[in-house]
Amino acid sequence: MERVIVLAGGMSYEREVSLSSGRRVADALKQVGMQVEIREADAGLLPLLMEDPPDLVFPVLHGAEGEDGAIREVLELLGVPYVGARPDACRLAWDKPTAKAVFRQAGLATPESVTLPKAAFHDLGASAVMKAVLDKLGLPLFVKPTRGGSALGASVVREAAELSTALIGCFSYGDVALIERFVTGTEVAVGVIEVDGEPTALPAVEIIPLGESYDYTARYTAGQTEFITPARLSPEATEQVRRTALAAHHALGLRHLSRSDIIVDTDGTPHLLEVNVAPGMTETSSLPLALHASHLTITQILSSL
């Protein structure tokens, strides 16, 4: 393999994160002698792929452009090989309520939740709908858009009066809200990579934000979050989160790499929140941290993929 195109950037809210991840992927592949160029998924991409197809495309697009399956569907149409999940699997993982339904069918614990569009609050009366949500799920809650990443539009609700503000913030990033029962415990990220075609779970990365939650600022600002790898879990819980991440990877039909976000409660039970098909590769992203803890380099793994 000689020539690789890394897709990064895009027009989503996560553009800067994608560019940072893309540069790191490109640098890693260049270290093993590959010819790499970073490209945007714009009007010039398809003519390039058709006229001068690369040996491989490595999508590092975050947000809808890179994770909803559309760009990968186009790569399939053109017959261009690429790293990462196939389109159908991306669509399953991208829509969080759908993914949660898949998790439940696979016997994986995931927080109880309700999914409601903005129109429901407008048409049925926001106060009445919010009261029904609170009566059903109680407090605290976690509110986030059903589609998207990097915790954009996501917030913790600890008092009933905070739910309205949380929903307004959520709807600024999407028209449908996923409202989950908040699980107190240890937050971990578990990466899965395929080594010789076999999915392998990396050490869990424990996430300790300095603020109230692991929001966008905490994720991508150095010093705002403490990461501990491997996570400080019991041997039993460590094995359970490993099995959970692998089961989620299989249940969604993913390939090559993924990252599962999990809360381990005080009883040691893992609660699967969501799975990302395009894990971040920045300096503060959990997957590179887990690789380092495994005595693997990002260059080794990315070039292998």
From TrEMBL:
Main subcellular location of this protein, as a coarse class: cytoplasm
InterPro entries linked: ATP-grasp, ATP_grasp_subdomain_1, D_ala_D_ala, Dala_Dala_lig_C, Dala_Dala_lig_N, PreATP-grasp_dom_sf
Alphabetized UniProt keyword annotations: ATP-binding, Cell shape, Cell wall biogenesis/degradation, Cytoplasm, Ligase, Nucleotide-binding, Peptidoglycan synthesis
Annotated function: Cell wall formation.
Alphabetical list of PANTHER family matching this protein: D-ALANINE--D-ALANINE LIGASE, D-ALANINE--D-ALANINE LIGASE B
Signal peptide: none
Record's subcellular location: Cytoplasm
Protein name: D-alanine--D-alanine ligase
One MF annotation (Gene Ontology) recorded for this entry: ligase activity
Family (UniProt): Belongs to the D-alanine--D-alanine ligase family.
Domain ATP-grasp span(s) in chain numbering: 100-302
Native species: Actinocorallia libanotica
